[in-house]
Amino acid sequence: MDTAAAEWTGAEDPAYRERRGGRTFGVWVAGLLLAGVSVVVGCRAADTDGITPVPQLLAFLPWLLVPTGLALLLALLARWRTGLVWGVALLGFVAWFIQPYGRADEPGGRPLARLRVMTSNVEFGRGTGSLIEAVRRRAPDILFVEECDYGCSRALEDAFGGDEGVYPYREAVEGAGSDGSVVMSRFPLKGADGVRGTMGMPGAVADVRGHAVRLQLAHPMPPLPGQLGVWRRELGELRDYADRSREPTVLAGDFNASQDHAAFRRILDTGLRDSARLTGSPRTPSWPARTTPAFGAQIDHVLLSADFSADRAAFLRISGSDHRALVVDLTLHQRD
Fold this sequence. Notes:
By secondary structure, this protein is α+β, with helices and mostly antiparallel strands. It has helices at residues 2-12, 14-45, 54-58, 65-77, 81-97, 128-138, 150-160, 228-244, 262-268, 275-278; strands at 111-121, 142-146, 169-173, 181-185, 189-192, 203-208, 211-218, 249-254, 273-274, 300-304, 308-317, 324-333. Strands 3-4-2-1-12-11 form a six-stranded mixed sheet. The chain has a six-stranded mixed sheet with strand order 5-6-7-8-10-9. Strand 7, helix 8 (228-244) and strand 8 (249-254) form a beta-alpha-beta unit. The chain is elongated.
């Protein structure tokens, strides 16, 4: 009788109720965090981008280690064994998927030509002035510019174009806001059908010291809620372009996708290599520029056919733009 009374008294003790309530709260919060991360990781494992908000969260997959770690801590404090096992397994899955995706083998043929490529999204033309300064410092041979509106296009032509300019050759889709895009080159360009999209994606064939190189600017729609179908379709168009190409190819721009998106991995599955990965920077963020390099996602890429090796890559701050520019030094090799 006394034992039962003591147990009953302990159960009603306010401190005991507070501890039990705290553990219950911890279990609930940990469970919600683990469930949310599991949905995103599950889509990554299933090779699908899912529905909103999964595609948006997939861009920041490495950062899912933070809520997973917090959930593990809460499960430990709450003595929730199921949550501990769940969290440890989830950490393992996230760590596995953080590994770089795609091929990274080097071409075996002899070097034919060296060139420098630069891509930059200037955010509705706002970063044009800063880009012009960066181009003068870095002196790329081929320049891809996304969200280059009418004013941006004129400014680049005034600064670098014309028969006597640094970049006498260009292919462009003129447009306002985010619709305009420009490819400028030191090498002679021949116009080629670009990839059709909501925003301009011009294409060309460059004569790089006697060798034909296909150039394609990438700027598909971002994965906005309600626009996921357009985003997938336009990334699919870029994938089809890469799959059809039989010449040395450079596919560069703002892809609005990272290696954690299934639609982007299908482009890499055609055999293209990501130059940032080849140079040891597979996770360096390029967007949003205001929080990089501490936080962000790599959605600006220079993708290369197997004819190229990449020697160096650098991500540059462009004032006025929400993207960092990417500059890559390449070597074109003879095919085996």
